[in-house]
């Protein structure tokens, strides 16, 4: 069975493997993370009425993910000040 798996891997087509150089603006990324964390803390403090920690954490994680994704979209696409930039694609062996 081991011989069959290694033979299939050897015959696999690797022409579709690509890699990329990605530039990250760290100052803007830290700013977006802080804004998302503070806004999520505020949203969870306003929305959650119970005193259980799991409710706060659940709302915080969901709000953080949504606010972080929206902030990345705003900065990358609308404001044309990208957090992540793909510099170049190249084939990967």
List the helices and strands and how they pair.
Blueprint: H1 2-11, E1 18-24, H2 26-47, H3 53-78, E2 84-91
Antiparallel strand pairs: 1-2
Helix pairs in contact: 2-3
Description:
It is a single chain. With 93 residues, the protein is α+β, with helices and mostly antiparallel strands. The protein has one domain (24-91). 62% of the residues lie in helices and 16% in strands. It is built from three helices and two strands. It has helices spanning 2-11, 26-47, 53-78; strands at 18-24, 84-91. It has a two-stranded antiparallel sheet. α2 crosses α3 (53-78).
| Poorly predicted residue ranges | none
Number of helices: 3
Overall pLDDT = 84
Largest sheet: 2 strands, antiparallel
How many domains in all? Answer: 1
Cα(first) to Cα(last) distance is 26 Å
Shape descriptor reads elongated
Strand tally, please? Answer: 2
Strand order of the main beta sheet, please? 1-2
Quickly give the structural class.
alpha+beta
What proportion of the residues form beta strands (DSSP E)? 15-25%
Helix content: 55-70%
Q: Compute the gyration radius: what is it?
A: 21 Å
What is the N-to-C succession of helices and strands? HEHHE
């Amino acid at each position: 069975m081991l011989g069959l798996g290694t033979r299939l891997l050897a015959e696999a087509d690797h022409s579709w493997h690509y890699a990329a150089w990605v530039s990250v603006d760290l100052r803007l990324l830290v700013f977006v993370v802080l804004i998302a964390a503070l806004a999520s803390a505020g949203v969870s403090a306003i929305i959650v009425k119970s005193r259980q920690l799991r409710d706060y954490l659940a709302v915080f994680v969901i709000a953080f993910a949504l606010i972080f994704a929206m902030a990345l979209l705003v900065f990358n696409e609308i404001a044309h000040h990208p957090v992540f930039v793909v510099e170049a694609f190249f084939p990967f062996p």
